[in-house]
Specification:
This protein has 15 helices and no strands. The protein has helices spanning 8-25, 31-34, 41-56, 63-77, 81-93, 98-106, 108-111, 114-130, 146-158, 160-167, 174-189, 196-210, 214-226, 231-244, 247-260. The protein is globular and about 60 Å long. It starts with 7 loop residues before the first helix and ends with a helix.
């Protein structure tokens, strides 16, 4: 086990972090920390004190939503399969159902592409199989008018901002605008298995972590507010990405949030 540094403040951070880590990691939450002891014991301590004690323990966002944001971001980045599986298991530990975890991974088809989503789903499948669980996914009627359904969803979530983005494509790539409406909103985002607040906060996590879609992140910050997320919850999700995608990604996300929230 990593040991906290001497000093009251450090001990408080460490024990606060371990309390959160136990909720996420379950009975064997310390296994990744033990694996670091012979090569990078301070990394294990940083994980506990900073990742969990300073960030994940913050009161501005509930732990369940934090876990879903982490699963979404790690699925989209597609570069940390063991950690993704750890956090998929963590999402189960804090109360998410298997089908809800599948739904948040499906969002990555829109923002990070099908290979990332496929890798995320197969990672989830392994976790579920180890636990003897099945996802029982929601199935959506493919015969409905995808464009009209997607357009209604887009308007509900983004009000004008999303529609303006689609409209801006009309003179150059109108089919891309149609793809966004039909697939992104009609097929994926409108699916019933997960509430819109969680989906939009997960999308903020994905776009912050990827760091390649400033205008789209702004649209989804506004959408998150439209469907009931608070300003503080949006900021917490972006700050959390400092742990999983690095400080530059979090700093860039906060700069976009400043514009979206009109903070001087």
């Amino acid at each position: 086990m990593p040991q906290p540094r001497k000093g009251i403040a450090s001990n408080e951070r460490y024990f606060r972090g371990m309390e959160v880590l136990r909720k996420v990691g379950g009975p064997d939450c310390e296994a990744p920390l033990r694996a670091l002891q012979d090569i990078a014991p301070d990394l294990a301590r940083f994980t506990v004190e900073f990742g969990y004690g300073d960030v994940m323990a913050r009161p501005g966002l509930d732990l369940r939503t934090r876990q879903m944001a982490t699963v979404a971001a790690l699925s989209a980045m597609a570069n940390a399969r063991p950690q993704l599986q750890y956090h998929i298991a963590g999402a189960l530990n804090v109360g998410w159902e298997p089908r809800q975890i599948v739904e948040v991974i499906l969002l990555t088809t829109v923002y990070a592409g099908f290979p990332a989503a496929l890798n995320g789903i197969f990672a989830a499948k392994e976790v579920l199989e180890r636990r003897g669980l099945t996802a029982a996914p929601d199935r959506v009627d493919g015969a409905r008018d995808r464009f009209e359904h997607g357009l209604r969803t887009l308007r509900e979530l983004s009000r004008r901002s999303g529609a303006d983005v689609v409209g801006s494509l009309a003179d150059l790539a109108p089919d891309l605008g149609r793809f966004i409406v039909e697939f992104s909103y009609g097929d994926v985002i409108s699916r019933p298995g997960l509430d819109y607040r969680t989906k939009e906060l997960a999308t903020v996590a994905i776009l912050t972590a990827l760091g390649t879609a400033r205008s789209q992140l702004k649209v989804h910050i506004i959408a998150a507010l439209n469907v009931g997320a608070s300003r503080q919850e949006v900021i917490e999700v972006i700050q959390q990405m400092g742990v999983y995608a690095g400080f530059p990604a979090a700093l860039n996300g906060i700069a976009v949030a400043r514009e979206a929230l009109a903070i001087p």
